[in-house]
Design brief:
Strand order of the largest sheet: 1-3-2-4-5
Distance between the termini: 17 Å
CATH class: Alpha Beta
Structural class: alpha/beta
Number of domains: 1
Number of helices: 4
Number of strands: 5
CATH superfamily: Glutaredoxin
Radius of gyration: 12 Å
CATH architecture: 3-Layer(aba) Sandwich
Order of helices and strands: EHEHEHEEH
CATH topology: Glutaredoxin
Strand content: 25-35%
Low-confidence stretches: none
C-alpha cells in the first residue's frame, strides 16, 4: 500500500499505468480507520492487478478538494488520470469497496 502525498499524487496516481485505487482518509475520521485494515487486505489480495494507494486528506486538503473529495471516507479508482468510480461516505462499506474492485480487476 503506497502512501501518496500532494507531492507525488500526480506521478503515482494520475500518471500511473493501469488502474489505481486511492483510499482518501483523514486523521480524525473514525469510519476511515475502521475501513483501513480491509483496504490493506484488498491490496494484498488484488495488488497484482491494481495499484493501491492512500492519501491523508488532513495533510492535502486542496488536493482532496481538487479531486472532488468533500466527505470521508472516499475509496476511488483512477484510470488514465481520471476518477472512474468511487465509494463515498456511507456507501464506503467493505462489501461495496470489494465489489467495486472486482468490477475493474
Amino acid at each position: 500500500m503506497l502512501e501518496v502525498t500532494k507531492e507525488n499524487f500526480e506521478a503515482e496516481v494520475l500518471q500511473a499505468e493501469g488502474k489505481v485505487l486511492v483510499d482518501f482518509y483523514g486523521d480524525g475520521c473514525v469510519p476511515c480507520q475502521a475501513l483501513m485494515p480491509h483496504i490493506h487486505e484488498f491490496a494484498e489480495t488484488y495488488g497484482d492487478k491494481m495499484k493501491f494507494a492512500s492519501l491523508n486528506t488532513t495533510k492535502a486538503r486542496r488536493l482532496a478538494i481538487a479531486q472532488k473529495v468533500l466527505g470521508l471516507p472516499v475509496i476511488a479508482i483512477y484510470e488514465g488520470g481520471v476518477m472512474i468510480d468511487s465509494c463515498v461516505k456511507e456507501d464506503a462499506t467493505v462489501e461495496n469497496v470489494e465489489a467495486m474492485i472486482k468490477k475493474y480487476v
